Amino acid sequence: MKILVLNAGSSSIKFQLLDMTDTTVIASGIVERIGQTDAITSFEIGKNEHRSVMAIANHKEALQQVVHLLLDPEKGVVGNVDDITAVGHRVVHGGNEFTDTTLIDENVKHKIGEFASLAPLHNPHNLEGIEVATSLFPNARQVAVFDTAFHQTIPVKASKYALPSELFDEHHIQLYGFHGTSHKYVSQQAIDYLKLKKSKIISIHLGNGCSMTAIENGKSIDHSLGFAPSNGLIMGSRSGDIDHAIIFHLVNKLGYQLEDVERMISKESGMLGLTGFSDLREIQQAASDGDKNCQLALEMNAYRIKKYIGSYTAAMNGVDVIIFTAGIGENSSLLRAMVCADMNYLGISMDAKANKQRSDELFEIQSGISQVKILVIPTNEELEIANQVKTLLEQ
């Protein structure tokens, strides 16, 4: 069984083609900086890597590029589109409608489109990926794996907002949670690695989108993103937590239109709004060169994460493991160090030398005196999605 996994983010598409007989990765890659003139496409087959830089205007063009590479007569690995049994799609928002992995039909696509207003940076791209894959792989089963599914275990006391109850009961306005595929995968990796029978884990997913999850005994019990993937931590272009009164002030006092405010909060804020840079690598370099705005933005980012660590430790009455994952979490030793600094009250102590290492595998970065394990775990949402797709098709 060969499964193609498509993971469409707000500015990138990751993909893997897996042989699920033994979970071998046949080919993998990523299209980054979508929407820019210098979009980067990386395509790996075994130890051979092909890289190109070109203008890619949108996610549809990016997906067409992925399929072109897979079918390329010289570089590709698929001779016929019918070699692919299924395409697994990461879908960010499933609302209350989808609580598990789901075969895609017209009704499912319609529902995913309905939830686009709740995840405007993601669901439209997820749906576009489904449409393109359906046309290019007409005989493959199309399957959706929802980010929100892992967070269905969050108790009502944490998922319900202090609004009139009919909004929760009738309109399902609540905390849904996101990045569930990633948080589920890395937390299970930590449990298996440390051989934990009981566990209190804080998973920190840091990429262009960022989130944190409190995970007790393998189940999500609280999460930093909410009704839509816009609050919580400071993200690449999203503001994270703000006082909602600011929105009314912008509209009623400063004359902004609601759509302008929505665009500002989702696409022009976060680290981009604070620094003018959209890539954390550029921000770190500028901070190192003395840019005060970039230095402050990094401090604000780390401070917000620290606050969530404190609140989730309180919610679980302790913490055994802290996990850093995703592109920034796995690669930014600077941000990890800033987050873990001066956390000795909670028993968190980092080993500076261990933190400097780079690896494609799980590694530990806590010091010898730390009471909490600090793990850097490369996320593998694609493998998690492929496993869920395989399980569904074999039922």
UniProtKB/TrEMBL annotation:
Reaction(s) catalysed (UniProt annotation): acetate + ATP = acetyl phosphate + ADP
Protein location: Cytoplasm
Residues holding Mg(2+): 7, 381
Entries under InterPro entries matching the protein: Ac/propionate_kinase, Aliphatic_acid_kin_short-chain, Aliphatic_acid_kinase_CS, ATPase_NBD
Site (Transition state stabilizer): 179, 238
Chief location bin: cytoplasm
Subunit comment: Homodimer.
Family recorded in the similarity comment: Belongs to the acetokinase family.
Name of the protein: Acetate kinase
Gene: ackA
